[in-house]
Write a structure and sequence with these properties.
single chain, 439 residues, alpha/beta, 21 helices, 6 strands, 50% helix, globular
Length: 439
């Protein structure tokens, strides 16, 4: 019989179980084991193995018919499934207690908004059970007032937070945060305002997800979220084929489902590296960790309304990224102006993503470590509140570049790298109307 290159769901589950039985096995070795065990025609890629391991819960929930299939049974209404799952995750982030009946009623409401008509499923208990299994949602419980009380207690006892951090080495403490980027934004107040207001129409905004550890020795690959799965600039290729970790939805926003995929991928990476780490997160609506089967990443959520003071990404790391991105952008604008191009700030999404990747890679470990120290969370280190000389040099370059460009109302460097709207689009709660658009 001719060797196959594809895996059945049962084989994928066996790969997950082999990994569980051999936790120290590397993904490359696991791929070679799978090829020999299942007599495949070629070795599965690292991305394939990573995706299989991240979906272990799904395979374990399948019946015998689904396990023998080489394809997971398609969800009949994926748009409804996605919008409802993101709504549930947002409710969990607000600690809203959800009953099964409430989820079914919300599903009916979304079905009407999506105009499913005769295609509307029967929202039975069986349908609800499959929906919960598919997304790893467990039975909902009421939390009463304990959620806000816990957050208040954390806020009053910051020394407890510091004590928790002390139990981890600096290399095992990570912070992740998102930021928007208007990648064509001109350093001109008048033009920029028009660009920001029109960004939803011309799709010139991206969301970036950054994570790094406290000693700066590991910057994780950034996740980029755009509006289209394959923008014109991609020339029909996928983000992965172009060398990016890329996802998309209609608004280019972080959602609960994308976040959970990202977090499970991080957990898998730490399993492969045999590391136990702490991940610091803010309380953004999409950051819902509940029910995720994490083994190597422990998540700590910052107290509400404190992240601007104690979150390392907000303490200068994202600003360092934007300084470097704007340096690429303004130099390109100067070159285009010298060539007498009509729109000197016009750049396609792929070029913007390449600049962004280079900007992130250019941030030094020293800069990242200093930003973690600046938060005051690490008493073992001396706090440093000044902008480093490297960052100041880049700001000087940006100021010189702005002065070279034909601008009627020039922005300050601070305005250029810290536009308030870029943060708003990354952290706002998504309305039901926008959840429908994201589907």
């Amino acid at each position: 019989m001719k060797p196959s290159s594809s895996l059945s769901n049962d084989q994928k589950l066996k790969i997950c179980h082999h990994k569980a039985a051999n936790p120290s096995i590397k993904q490359s070795a696991l791929a070679n084991w799978a090829m020999q065990e299942f007599k495949l025609s070629k070795v599965p890629t690292q991305g394939t193995i990573s995706n299989i391991l991240a979906k272990r819960q799904q395979y374990e929930s399948m019946d015998s018919t689904e396990l023998t299939s080489k394809r997971q049974r398609a969800v009949k209404h994926p748009e409804l499934d996605n919008v409802l799952a993101n709504w549930v995750l947002q409710c969990q982030a607000r600690r809203v207690a959800l009953s099964g009946d409430l989820i079914k009623e919300k599903a009916r409401q979304f079905a009407r908004q999506l105009e499913l008509g005769e295609r509307t499923p029967e929202f039975s208990n069986g349908w609800l059970a499959k929906f919960n299994i598919r997304h790893g949602f467990k039975a909902q419980k009421s939390y009463g007032e304990s959620g806000s009380a816990d957050l208040d207690a954390i806020d009053r006892n910051m020394p407890t937070i510091k004590e928790k951090l002390q139990s981890y080495s600096l290399q095992d403490i990570y912070n992740m945060d998102e930021t928007g980027l208007f990648y064509r934004m001109a350093p001109d107040r008048t033009i920029a305002r028009r660009q920001i207001e029109g960004s939803k129409k011309d799709k010139t905004r991206l969301t970036f997800v950054f994570a790094a550890n406290a000693d700066g020795s590991h910057k994780m690959e950034p996740l980029i979220i755009g509006h289209a799965q394959r923008p014109r600039a991609f020339n029909r290729k996928s983000g992965e084929q172009l060398g990016f970790y890329y996802r998309s939805n209609a608004q280019a926003w972080m959602t609960g489902l994308i976040f959970r995929e990202w977090l499970q991928k991080m957990d898998q990476q730490m399993q492969d590296a045999n590391r136990k780490v702490l991940l610091l997160l803010d309380n953004a609506p999409s950051h819902v960790v509940r029910d995720l089967p994490l083994t190597n990443v422990q998540v700590f959520l910052f107290p509400a309304n404190t992240t601007s003071k104690i979150q390392p990404m907000d303490a200068g790391i994202i600003a360092a990224f934007k300084r470097r991105y704007r340096r690429f952008q303004l130099q390109d604008a100067i070159d285009r102006d010298e060539q007498q191009k009509a729109d000197i700030y016009k750049v396609d999404q792929l070029i913007a993503m390449k600049w962004a990747k280079a900007a992130w890679n250019d941030i030094s470990s020293k800069t990242i470590a200093n930003c973690f120290k600046r938060t005051g969370l690490f008493e073992r280190e001396t706090q440093k509140n000044e902008v480093g000389s490297e960052e100041q040099d880049i700001e000087n370059e940006l100021e010189d570049a702005i002065n070279q460009l034909p601008i009627s109302r020039p922005m300050s460097v601070h305005e250029l790298i810290n536009p308030e709207e870029e943060q708003q689009v990354a952290h706002e709660e998504i309305s039901d109307e926008d959840l429908i658009k994201l589907s």
